[in-house]
Design brief:
Distance between the termini: 32 Å
Strand order of the largest sheet: 1-6-7-5
Number of helices: 7
Strand content: 15-25%
Shape: globular
Length: 278
DNA sequence: AGTGTATCCTGCAGGC
DNA sequence: TGCCTGCAGGATACAC
C-alpha cells in the first residue's frame, strides 16, 4: 500500500503532535508485526520520549531519547493513527496491532488488517546499517538524472522491477513506478540498461513529479490507506495509468492495458509506451 | 544476475 | 444470501 508519498504524509501528520511526548505504555496486541521479541520491543520504548518523526523510503522513523529509533514499514495495509485523546478517541483502529499511550493523553496506534507491516526498534549503528542497504531518496540531492542513468545502465532488469527495488531507489512502489513509466513513455518491461541518457532524464523527472504530486494530494487511497488522522488521500483521481485497464489513455485515447510480471500488475498505454523489441 | 513462484494475512468485488 | 475465485499499495526466500 503505502509508498513514499503516503509515508511522508503520515510523517507530516505526526510531526506536530509526537515530539516531546513521553511513552507511558506500549501494548503489543499482535506480536507477529514486531521484529524481534515483543517484550524487548516494549522495554526499549517504555519511558522514552519521542524526539523526532522522520521517514526513510517508505518507512516511518520515530526517534526516541537514548538514540533508539522505531522504524515502521507499513506493508500493504499498515496505518499509524494518532488520537490526541485516550484509546477510544478517534481515529479508531480497525485492526489494532500496537498501542502506544503517551503523555498528554495521546494514543498512537499501529493498525494493519493484513499484518504484512513490521515494527522494529534499532539502535544507532543498526539503523545506519539498515539505511545504507536502501538506495537514495528519490526527492533528495543524491538522486540525479546522471545517477539514475548509471544505475539503469548496470542492470538487465525490467524498468518496473528496477524502480521497485528499494536498494536502487528508496520509496517507489508499484503505483508510482507504473505512473512514472507511463508519463516518461517507457514500457514497464523494457530492460533498464537499454535506456539512454535522454530517457533516463525523462524518467528521473517523472518519478519526482509523480511523487511530489502525490504528496501534495496527501497520498493515494485505493482502499486502505489513511493518514495519521485517519483521513483518505486525494491523489487517486490523478492516476493516469494505474488501475485504468480498458480506459482511454489520456494522451492518445488508446485503451490502457494491464500486464502481469513478477506477480504484479502493471498498466500501460501500448501506443505511448511501445513494447521493447524481443 | 534475474525471473517465476510461493509465502506471510485479510477483506472485498464480482460471478454464479 | 452464500460460495468461490481473483485481486490488492510490500518484502523476502527459494529453485532454476
Amino acid at each position: 500500500m503505502p509508498e513514499l508519498p503516503e509515508a511522508e504524509t503520515i510523517a507530516r501528520g505526526l510531526r506536530p503532535h509526537l515530539p516531546g511526548r513521553r511513552i507511558l505504555e506500549v501494548e503489543v496486541l499482535r506480536p507477529d508485526v514486531i521484529v524481534g521479541s515483543a517484550p524487548a520491543f516494549v522495554a526499549s520504548l517504555s519511558g522514552r520520549s519521542v524526539e523526532g518523526v522522520g521517514r526513510r523510503g517508505k518507512n516511518l522513523v520515530l526517534e526516541v531519547t537514548g538514540g533508539g529509533r522505531l522504524v515502521v514499514n507499513l506493508g500493504m495495509t499498515g496505518r499509524l493513527l494518532f488520537a490526541s485523546g485516550p484509546p477510544s478517541t478517534k481515529p479508531d483502529p480497525t485492526h489494532p496491532g500496537v498501542r502506544i499511550r503517551t503523555s498528554g493523553g495521546g494514543t498512537l496506534w499501529y493498525d494493519d488488517a493484513r499484518r504484512f507491516g513490521r515494527l522494529q526498534v534499532m539502535d544507532t549503528p543498526s539503523y545506519r546499517g539498515w539505511s545504507r542497504t536502501l538506495g537514495p531518496e528519490p526527492l533528495g540531492r543524491r538522486f540525479t538524472a546522471e545517477a539514475l542513468h548509471a544505475g539503469l545502465a548496470a542492470s538487465r532488469s525490467p524498468l518496473r522491477s528496477w524502480l521497485l527495488d528499494q536498494r536502487k531507489v528508496a520509496g517507489v512502489g508499484n503505483i508510482y513506478a507504473v505512473e512514472a513509466l507511463f508519463l516518461a513513455g517507457l514500457h514497464p518491461r523494457r530492460q533498464a540498461r537499454s535506456v539512454d541518457r535522454t530517457d533516463a532524464s525523462r524518467l528521473h523527472r517523472e518519478v519526482r513529479r509523480v511523487l511530489r504530486q502525490a504528496i501534495r494530494y496527501r497520498g493515494t487511497t485505493l482502499r486502505d490507506y489513511r493518514d495519521a488522522s485517519g483521513s483518505s488521500g486525494e491523489n487517486a483521481p490523478r492516476l493516469a495509468a494505474y488501475g485504468r485497464e480498458g480506459l482511454p489513455c489520456n494522451r492518445c485515447g488508446t485503451p490502457i492495458e494491464r500486464i502481469v510480471f513478477s506477480n504484479r500488475s502493471a498498466f500501460l498505454c501500448p501506443r505511448c509506451q511501445p513494447e521493447p523489441a524481443g
